[in-house]
UniProtKB/TrEMBL annotation:
Annotated organism of origin: Tepidimonas aquatica
Transmembrane helix keyword on record: no
Molecular function in Gene Ontology: ribosome binding
Record lineage: Bacteria, Pseudomonadati, Pseudomonadota, Betaproteobacteria, Burkholderiales
Protein name, UniProt field: Ribosome maturation factor RimM
One Pfam short name: RimM
Length: 196
């Protein structure tokens, strides 16, 4: 399917460091704003990034009906703000509800290079922790981070070891996490292999 030349987005290559932050849930209002949902830790990124990449949905009912574009597109973001349990955004060139509705289901991604720096040296973006090796104080390899879960009060590192045969979950709190070394791609924890 060829993109419609009357719409304000252009096909582009998706950056290698693109990170999925959510999806366009629906149009919001009558002036072209969109509501973005599915944002876990990425709210600060959505609020600060002025360049988003949108890709067609690959699953769900919107994947069947989606006709706005067939390949990734880059859009410029004019405004973003928190609204209840979601974020609302105004995209450059999307000035009416019907154009905004065409974006329903689009996956919202931002290049990792466009993330703002964290305010605290002990604060990390989850995407930077995925793939890190986790070792305990004795140097025993406990696994590789494959996911983080938000449990409300804190995040939990989900590890996989022994080719996926062993799964571990470690609270990502200072009581258990001694150090995160992004350069060495390692997290050191106060945890033993036999902890449940």
């Amino acid at each position: 399917m060829q993109p419609d030349t009357a719409v304000p987005w252009q096909a582009c290559a998706l950056p290698a460091d693109a990170v999925v932050l959510g999806h366009v849930h629906d149009a919001w209002g009558v002036r072209g704003w969109v509501r973005v949902r599915g944002v876990a830790q990425g709210g600060a990124v959505l609020a600060s990034a002025r360049r988003w990449y949108l890709t067609p949905p690959t699953e769900g009912p919107n994947a069947v009906r989606f006709d706005a574009f067939a390949a990734p597109v880059q859009v410029r973001v004019r405004q973003v703000r928190r609204h209840g349990d979601a974020w609302v955004a105004r995209i450059e060139g999307v000035d009416d509800r019907s154009t905004a509705e065409r974006l329903r289901g689009a996956v919202v991604q931002v290049a990792r290079a466009d993330f703002p720096p964290t305010d605290d040296p002990d604060e990390f973006y989850w995407v930077d922790l995925i793939g890190l090796d986790v070792v305990n104080r004795e140097g025993v390899h406990l696994g590789v981070v494959h996911e983080l879960l938000s449990t409300g009060p804190h995040a939990v590192l989900c590890l996989s070891a022994d080719e996926g045969r062993v799964q571990r979950m470690i609270p990502f709190v200072s009581a258990y996490v001694d150090a995160v070394d992004l350069a060495a791609r390692r997290i050191t924890v106060d945890w033993q292999p036999d902890y449940d």
